[in-house]
Amino acid sequence: MEKNSKIKIFSILAAIVLLLIFLSLFFQREKFRDAIFDVAYIPQKTFFFIGDTFLNGFKIVFSLKDIIEENAVLRSKNEDLTKKNIELENLKKENKLLRNQLSLSEKSSFNLLDVKIVSFEPSNFSEFVVINKGSKDGIKKDMPVILPGNILIGKVFKAYENYSNVLLITDKNNKVNVKSFVKKDGQESEKTSYTGVLNGYFGKSLFMNLIEKKSDIKKGDLIITSGLDGVYPDNLIIGTVDIIKDDDNAVFKQAYLNPAFLPLNFTLAFVIR
Amino acid sequence: MKKFLFFTILALVVFFQASLAQKIEVFSVLPNLPLITLFLLIFFLKDYKKMMLSAVFLGLLFDFFSGLPFGIFTLTFVSLAFIANMMLNAFISRENIFIFFAIVVFGTIAYYILNIIFLSIFNFFGEGELNIVLAPVFLKNMLIEVLYNLILAFLISPLGKFVR
């Protein structure tokens, strides 16, 4: 093919793409996008299922010894947790009884909408997932998204009719006000909570900044949302402290966190409305 | 029928990228299978029109799954296909398979550069709400992706004869 005709084809295609971009800015493309997600979800889920089974099978073979040891540890932990669970159940009953006596209503929980993660960001430039519900179900921009167990994964970035894009907390553009979790009983009672601002860091990690110099930050500390940013409610689990940076010249301490929501699968999540 | 099958395979590559690729990430970096497929088509496919259409198709699907402003990846893929094809025809021979691997390396770097340029343009016009931060770790990610793409390209290069 001649050079000129190649340039011609390129110019025509580039013009079409630019026209599509231009049209997408002014016209609704939600329906088209919805249809693509509908079609894509089935093969994607199949791919994921096959891959998951395959990789898990491999992992099991190579870590059989570890699994046996882990099983013994988990058994003993399970016994402890069963005991604690019974204690908690009793406390719950007692609490309910006392609340009734004091005529207090039950502490309000979140208004949750269950959603499913249907796809993941294909590039390495940002951190997104797509969920299977959108504006039709009442989802709006900036609504927090959590996993079972109050583990925060991100917030709604764009809500289409049937689907929504969720910006994960591991994205550099997502900022969350956080604090450390302090147990109210036991030995940690004297330890004071410290706060900070968190954003995503390349490589599915989290970076916590603006931690006071005097704070007693330690590896393994549990970090939760503080609720100060007005986007995320307080007490949602973020992750645990992994690496602490404490430079003499720096005004604040910094830390890298392991996110609690990883690894993420095609799984059930909840949008807080 | 053959064309339908061809584009179905391209669609499956993007579906795979938006799902199972998460399972094969290395140091939290994903390989870019649609990009490797595009390089494979650039190098092995003789039909220029089909190659350019494939670039648009792969880019559009990629854009639909990405949270970045719509059109960035389509523009990047089409530009890459055009530039790489021109360079191949003007300066380099297609006979040597190592040229294909060179395309993967320099093409992946060019893909990063083009994406940053296009995202900056979108941001300039107020359409992009996200910034790509050019931190050293971003460059590290780019290098890992280049290496990862190169390894995968090496593994799938025998498929080139089917493309031909």
Topology, pairings included?
The complex is a heterodimer of chains A (273) and B (164).
Chain A lengths: L2 H24 L3 H33 L1 H39 L9 E9 L7 E4 L12 E4 L3 E9 L4 E5 L6 E6 L14 E7 L3 E7 L10 E4 L11 E9 L7 E7 L8 E5 L1
Antiparallel strand pairs in A: 1-2, 1-12, 2-5, 3-4, 3-12, 4-5, 6-7, 6-9, 7-8, 8-11, 9-10, 10-11
Chain B lengths: L1 H16 L15 H12 L3 H18 L6 H19 L6 H28 L11 H21 L3 H4 L1
Helix pairs in contact in B: 1-3, 2-3, 2-4, 2-5, 2-6, 3-4, 4-5, 5-6
Kindly estimate the percentage of residues of chain A that lie in beta strands according to DSSP: 25-35%
Helix content of chain B: over 70%
Please give the CATH architecture of the largest domain in chain A. Beta Barrel
Number of strands of chain A: 12
Protein chains sharing the most extensive interface: A-B, 52 and 59 residues
What spatial form of chain A do the alpha-carbon principal axes imply? globular
Helical residue percent band of chain A: 25-40%
Mean of residue pLDDT of chain B?
86
Radius of gyration of chain A: 24 Å
| Biggest sheet descriptor of chain B | none
What is the SS-derived class of chain B?
A: mainly alpha
**Within the CATH hierarchy, at the fold level, what is the topology of chain B?**
Arp2/3 complex 21 kDa subunit ARPC3
Walkthrough of the structure:
The complex is a heterodimer of chains A (273) and B (164). Chain A is an alpha+beta fold and 273 residues long. Chain A is built from three helices and twelve strands; from the N terminus they run H-H-H-E-E-E-E-E-E-E-E-E-E-E-E. Chain A has helices spanning 3-26, 30-62, 64-102; strands spanning 112-120, 128-131, 144-147, 151-159, 164-168, 175-180, 195-201, 205-211, 222-225, 237-245, 253-259, 268-272. In chain A, the strands form two sheets. A six-stranded antiparallel beta barrel of chain A has the order 1-2-5-4-3-12. In chain A, a hairpin with a 7-residue loop joins strand 1 and strand 2. The longest helix of chain A is centred in the N-terminal third of the chain and has 39 residues, at 64-102. Chain A is globular. Chain A starts with a helix and ends with a strand. Chain B has 164 residues and is mostly helical. Chain B has one domain: Arp2/3 complex 21 kDa subunit ARPC3 (Orthogonal Bundle), CATH 1.10.1760. In chain B, helix 2 (33-44) packs antiparallel against helix 3 (48-65) and helix 2 (33-44) packs parallel to helix 4 (72-90). The model of chain B has no long low-confidence stretch (mean pLDDT 86). Classes of the chains: A alpha+beta (273), B mainly alpha (164). The interface between A and B is large, with 52 and 59 residues.
